[in-house]
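Schema walk-through. Below, the input block comes first and the output block second. Nothing else is stored per chain. Lengths vary across the set, and this one has 156 residues.
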Amino acid sequence: MFDVTVLKWIHIISSTVLFGTGLGTAFHGLATNLRGDLRAIVAGNRNVVLADWLFTTPAVIVQPVTGVALALQEGWPLDTHWILASVALYIFVGACWLPVVWLQMQMARIADECLASGEPLPPRYRRYFWRWFALGWPAFIAMLGIFWLMVAKPQF
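--- output ---
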């Protein structure tokens, strides 16, 4: 088993990558879409999708693995209330993220097709964009809650 310090470091780094990539892609996606420049939207969408595959997906996998390993090594029962609350919030974040990933890929495909054909973005694209944007807020707030739980480890 890993040294607990190494596990903590990996857990903290992967949570930082997860949160930071989410915040960065949200900003990049929002900024490029609000500007309305189709070429920028295409590039922004491609980068957002790529960042999710390169950074978010591995961090999503590393977080629960290192979290469980840390709990076991530190002697915290997995049914400790703050751990259960963290897991519930993490599942909630995932329930927001999975449709976001689908929306991002659809938006990228639609924007690519519009750029190639010279057509403007259809109303469906804007609906997808606003759903993408709306799903980010509860996930962002839940991630803040998870960070608080990891640091405070409150007794309920």
